[in-house]
Known about the structure:
The complex is a heterodimer of chains A (108) and B (879).
Chain A: H1 12-24, H2 30-41, H3 47-59, E1 63-67, E2 80-84, H4 86-103
Antiparallel strand pairs in A: 1-2
Helix pairs in contact in A: 1-2, 1-4, 2-3
Chain B: H1 5-18, H2 22-40, H3 42-63, H4 73-85, H5 87-115, E1 127-134, E2 139-141, H6 145-151, E3 158-172, E4 178-186, H7 189-194, E5 200-201, E6 216-220, H8 221-228, E7 238-241, E8 244-252, E9 264-267, E10 284-289, H9 295-312, H10 314-317, E11 320-326, H11 335-369, H12 371-379, H13 384-423, H14 441-467, H15 470-478, H16 488-520, E12 530-537, H17 543-558, E13 563-569, E14 580-584, E15 599-607, H18 610-614, E16 621-622, E17 636-640, H19 641-647, E18 657-660, E19 676-682, E20 695-699, E21 707-714, H20 718-732, E22 736-743, H21 744-787, H22 789-797, H23 802-834, H24 839-846, H25 848-868, H26 872-878
Parallel strand pairs in B: 4-9, 6-8, 15-20, 17-19
Antiparallel strand pairs in B: 1-2, 1-10, 1-11, 3-4, 3-7, 3-10, 5-8, 6-9, 7-8, 12-21, 12-22, 13-21, 14-15, 14-18, 16-19, 17-20, 18-19
Helix pairs in contact in B: 1-2, 1-3, 2-3, 4-13, 5-11, 5-13, 5-14, 5-21, 11-14, 11-21, 12-15, 13-14, 13-21, 16-21, 16-23, 16-25, 17-20, 21-25, 22-26, 23-24, 23-25
Amino acid sequence: MTKTSAAATLAEFELMVLVAAMRLDDDAHAVSIAADISERTGRIVRRANVYTTLQRLEDKGLLTTALGDPRPERGGKPRRVVTPTPDGVAAVRATMTAIHAMTHGVKI
Amino acid sequence: MTAPRWAAALLRRLSRATGAEADVLLGDLEEAHRARVARRGGVVATLLTTLETMDITLMLIGRLRILRVAVSWIDLKLAFRMMLRYPVLTLVSSGSLALAIAIGAAAFAFISLFLWPRMPLPDGDEIVIVQHHDRAASQPESRVIADFLRWRGGTTTLTDVAAGRDMARNLLMGDGLVEPISVAEVTASTFAMTRVAPILGRTLTDADASAAAPPVVMIGERIWRDRFGADPGFLGRTVLISDVPTAVVGVMPAAFRFPSIHEVWQPLKISVSAVQPRAGIGVSIWARMRPGVTPERANAELAVLSAQHAAAWPATHASLVAGVQPATWSEMNDPEERGLLASMNGVIALMVLLVSGNVALLMFARAATRESEIVVRTALGASRARLIGQFVAEASVLSFLAAIAGLAIAQRVMHWGLTAFVLDANGGQLLPFWITSTLPPMSIAYGVGLAIAATLVTGILPAMKMTRGVSSRLRETTAGGGGLKFGGIWTVLIVAQIAVTATFPAIAFIVKTAAWRSEARQIGVPTNRYLTAELSSASEMTEARFEAAVRRVREDLAATSGIARVALADRLPLMWNGHHMIEVETGGEGPTDETLVGAHLVSTAAVEPDFFAAFDALPIAGRLLVHADNADVARVAVVNESFVRNVLGGRSAIGRRLKYRSSSNGGQLIPQQQWIEIVGVVRDLGMGAPPKDAGIYLPLNLHAVSSVRIAGLVTGDMTAATNALRASAAKADAALRIGDVQTLAAVTANGVKTINYVVAAIGMVSVAALVLALSGLYAVMSFAVSRRTREIGIRVALGSPRSRVVVTILRRPLIQLTLGSVFGALLTIGLSRLMELPVGFSLGLIAVGPIIFAVCLLACIVPARRALRVDPIAALRAE
């Protein structure tokens, strides 16, 4: 039996948001995260849900956000760039491990 | 293109209240919007951005401190329980909202269809029509084949350039039946542009358009199913199109009728070597804008190309300029009319808000009965947000049910409305294929938006009022007084509702009388035994050929067994003949038009001499028309009895002369400014619209018209006679078009059916208005009783008779009812005056007032009974 780590596990959408933020790296913000999830999963992603989830993950200390530079394609307005914290990365790892442990050996 | 301005303002306001960063949210909105515009076009992007803004707005509202406690499942469960506990209130509230949402969504759909029609084809917004305009002559130019040939390979902004024209032809079926059809002669590129594939066979190709190619045709699914029994082996069969054997190569889906009402497509044959600039046949040019191209960019390019054409062909193209326009056209082009129609949306939204206000009043009245519960819950520590959440949950359940019912009703209303429109305004002809009776997504979104607005009004307004200053009310209540007040604005609202309620049945009645008049019209012959049809000339027929063909049909039909008498006329009895202004030489004594002294409004029909015999009309005075009367310009006329009565005041008509005013819009048949002698009088044969049914019969000149109506009295089988008529038309001339084949009775039936649709629509609105008025009154009464329970208790304890208690309670609603009924009666009288109805008639309509009064009084009975059941001891103890 594989032991899971003590780090917090994530709900499905939280996991997607954090993984998308990790992949997008410096370009991670609400619009790009929503587009990334939508493109890869084919789901219709409501950006309002992304905002709520980002707020919750920030409250839990799993990510930090910082204001970026103003951009012309955004009508001269800045982005809020998202960066997962080490705790956030650990939570992703713990959730994935738990999923693998549960699905191991199961024909799906 | 940026995100909508109102969205930015709303988000900024809410961000301030919630501590969110407005700039980041707006930047995100802008970025996502631009990406959508590039991917899916401006209109779809704006719609999606609007929905997204609403979504984010709701998220921000959820973050507001006041609603921090979100609506929970328990709230929803409680809401359902409350709905079941007060079934009448639930029914009245959700019914009122459903009707309001239905009217709102259906009206929005109608207005959108006629003001902003959209092409229902894949990426249909990209399809445009390229129009040429002669700036010097200030008129459009359609002889543009040479321009089309230069552009058909595409330009930098346009692709799949196609051309076509509309042709009137006859389709002869294998069974000998003829159907008049509108053929779209189009280039093969039309099908690539529309991106619609045939359901059977292939589309037209460039090879089909070559001069040597055998004639081919594509037909629509409806004709394939209705006339050819959806035969899968139909491809390759030959049909006769205006006498030319033509092979069918494909079948297009029923929903495809490009460019507007067409169900038959043939290749447009262009002899490229013979094409001269600005010469030859007139065509329309369509094209698809390349992805991301705006109409402005396309117009800019066409301006440059027009200048090049002007340089190449200076003699013909110097003042010609091309530009793109939407390929759909609106039925309404006057900017003032468009503005007026668009503003109807605002009026309807206001009506929905008023309805919501009414329902809010009901909710408030019910909430007032729960004041103690609210006070106790507050004392036990329930936050204001928690209490408001409960109210919002109840309102959202009501609105949800109302939205579902309302949208279903709206769909039905759309279907009715369009059917009535096709029957009435469009004369039974098909509408352009972009006008369908399906509720468009925009109007569903509008209906849902109305439901959300209703939730906010019916949930938050009473909740805010009920939960404001609960602590101080706790003190007041225990001291024996109530803190809630009832606003005077509701009184005005209810009075207005009752007035409108009393007027609607009158409107329905006035409209219905028109139907009764039509139904009751008798012309002394069995109209259901007369077979009628319209014979018209196809595009290529000469006047002489048309006249000869019509005469052949007439003779053929007269010789058919089972058909007794045949007549030809431009208008048959019971058909709308229009009104014309005439003068009578010696002066009539009947009613005259006020603005034109000595002039009279009459109807006119042009008939062949056999017309009167066919309808059993003998001369009452003088003689009937004879073949010798038939001249290029009419010299004699026969009038009907109504003419003698209304225009001549009963004096002798024979020998009198009449003259049509030159302003009359009579076309070729009406002789202008020339005296005509009355030679005979016949009985009334259903002319004009009663009571104005004075009529004149002139001799029919067959070579001066392009369409004529034929009628035959059928003594045998009607179906056999119908088939014989269609076959006669096909045999007489392949280019002769036959349409509107129906009995004379059906002519009236269609008009009556349309009126009945309108009456049904008004009836629905009347019911809605009645429900609203009743719900308003019920709310007022319930509120009054709930607030005055203690007072009633004291009055009864002090020995006040029950009748006086009831009068005290009923005083306010009675005043409202009386005022409403009086205003309603005044409105009815005004309407009757406007419709020129007799005084006795309007008095009859006012009689509806007391009925409404009595029905509304019923709404007061339930709360009044509740007041009488108040036990004085319990009422005093309760406080």
